[in-house]
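To whoever picks this up:

The nightly regression suite flagged Enoyl-[acyl-carrier-protein] reductase [NADH] as changed. Nothing in the input moved, so I suspect the structure step. Input below, exactly as stored in the fixture:
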Amino acid sequence: MSGILDGKKIVVMGAANRRSIAWGCVKAIKKQGAQVILTYQNDRIKKMLSRIDDDDPKIECDVAEDANIKKAFDEIHDQFGNIDGVVHAIAYADKKTLTSGLHSVERKGYNLAQDISAYSFIAVSRYASQIMNPGGSIATLTYMGSTRAIPNYNMMGVAKAALESSVRYLAAELGKAKDIRVNAISAGAIRTLSVTGIKHHKQLLDMSKARTVDGKSVTIDEVGNAMSFILSDLASGVTGDTIFVDKGVHLIA
Ligand code: NAD
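Regenerated output under the current build:
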């Protein structure tokens, strides 16, 4: 079957289980003809991932250290050659930081959330771009809590604002230097492992669902399909953008 990603090699970072947005991306990207290389945070996640995927190659990459990211992309290059795209679907904040209001967030928690959720995208873009073919595409996942004060999203909203700004600067730099596009998909709220760390996450999910145009939450498959487009040559004119895939939640006041 021919697809819009035929012949491309795409690295997907952040699949942990069947509910992960990254997993929706893996399924959609493969359906469109690409070869997928997965990265996982640690042995625990590798075990979880292996339960749902036993055929795609998997490389360890804890993004907390630049050396790990460099090593992972070196390994990917050694084993698979140049790549054509990366999906960065990674975020983290510790429980205390996530559950206290922003005014109570301490320096350590702030730095950790920014480090894993925003800085890691810069480092990933650096090392990925070194082994990426011209015309390649790098994309991350964000949420509209970056521009609106969503109840209980707090620190993660601040990190997502930095992430979206990074998308614009990286798009300007890497477009010019290497013909690589950089974008973000702003997904609607979906019940995943990460979301359960947010205080009163059920309210967040219910509120989001109630505000979609058809009363149904967006799915990881719908996000994956939009991601396939962003990674494909059909999106050659799209860069530095944050594209909403939330079934219209961002429209409703
Ligand atoms: P998830 O829990 O399935 O995925 C989060 C992933 O981040 C996990 O695979 C985890 O291993 C990885 N991760 C955390 N720390 C890491 C580290 N140090 N090194 C490497 N990997 C690390 O949850 P998800 O909701 O699929 O999250 C994926 C992305 O989508 C995140 O950026 C999240 O903020 C974003 N997002 C989620 C929603 C939602 O409602 N679920 C909405 C918009 C955006």
